[in-house]
Write a structure and sequence with these properties.
The complex is a heterodimer. By secondary structure, chain A is an alpha+beta fold. Chain A has helices at residues 2-9, 30-35, 41-56, 62-69, 121-141, 147-159; strands at 15-19, 22-27, 77-84, 88-101, 104-108, 115-118, 160-162. In chain A, strands 1, 2, 3, 4, 5, 6 and 7 form a 7-stranded mixed sheet that branches. Chain B starts with 7 loop residues before the first helix and ends in a 5-residue tail after the last helix. Classes of the chains: A alpha+beta, B alpha+beta. At the A-B interface, strand 5, strand 6 and helix 5 of A face strand 2 and helix 2 of B.
């Protein structure tokens, strides 16, 4: 299955268990999600399962899919790295945290004061991507911001470029 | 935390009326708090949620540089726009 995952994503899928001293489960699956944004969700799920198999060496099943995208497993936060937005991409992947929020999901970005929200974790990630992208264009439009926002502007300018 | 008491429309209307935020009507409803022509805070109000889940409520408060209790006060009325900008001045957000 690994060659399929690599063929779909064309990017490195990296496991990690700790970020900033906190306990997480996470993998880079964003490129996989991006590549198949326009195909049915079943294919998306299958690709995540492939990523799961690659990382953990387990048979891709529904439960292994959920272990990736259901943040409340083992009461741990889930982190994924996003490297692409909609028309923009990050020069290095950005960590985002997925958490259940009642019957929905919130996806936060520790480096930026934005969040995405939806009933489904993948939709919440998509929501966060739209938020970051719109924030980028708003910040680039002028300089009438507080010093804190000017710092975010610099951060985004340094780390984002257009998708080719 | 009084998130169960408010829905997203309550938050949106309070932000519009008290803080003069102009929200964009896109998939993500967000807008800027502007003071003396300087953009200070950017808040996102999820569409169609009733009531607002706790973590989302807290994140909205943080986006406005408020604690959850202060955000409760903003929505319930005790925290006026004047008091809000005074708080931001105390926190160094407004120069």
């Amino acid at each position: 299955m690994l060659p399929i995952a690599s063929a779909i994503s064309g990017n490195i899928i990296t496991p990690f268990s700790a970020v900033g001293g906190r306990d997480y489960n996470g993998v880079i699956v964003d490129s996989v999600l991006n590549k198949i944004d326009n195909v049915p969700r079943t294919v998306t799920n299958a690709s995540i399962a492939i990523a799961t198999e690659f990382v953990f060496g387990v048979q891709p099943t529904i439960s292994s899919i959920l272990s990736i995208i259901q943040p409340n497993v083992n009461n741990k936060l889930q982190v994924i790295m996003i490297d692409r937005l909609i028309t923009l991409k990050f020069s290095k992947p950005l960590s985002v945290i997925i958490e259940p929020d009642d019957d929905a999901y919130i996806v936060r970005c520790p480096d930026l004061p934005v969040f995405g929200f939806a009933n489904d974790p993948l939709e919440a990630i998509a929501s966060l991507k739209r938020e970051i992208e719109s924030l980028y264009f708003e910040l680039m439009a002028d300089d009438n911001f507080s010093p804190q926002w000017l710092d975010y502007k610099e951060f985004l300018r340094d780390n984002i470029c257009e998708l080719k | 935390m009084k998130n169960g008491k408010f829905n997203t429309n309550d938050v949106k209307h309070t932000c519009e009326n008290k803080l003069s935020i102009k929200f964009r009507n896109t998939k993500e409803c967000n807008g800027w708090v502007i003071f003396n022509n300087v953009k200070l805070s950017r808040v996102t109000v999820p569409l169609g949620r009733k009531p607002i889940p706790p973590k989302t409520y807290k994140n909205m408060a943080n986006q406005l540089h408020l604690t959850v209790d202060e955000f409760d006060d903003l929505l319930e009325c005790p925290l006026t726009a004047d008091k809000y900008f005074k708080l931001l001045r105390g926190r160094g957000v407004v120069k």
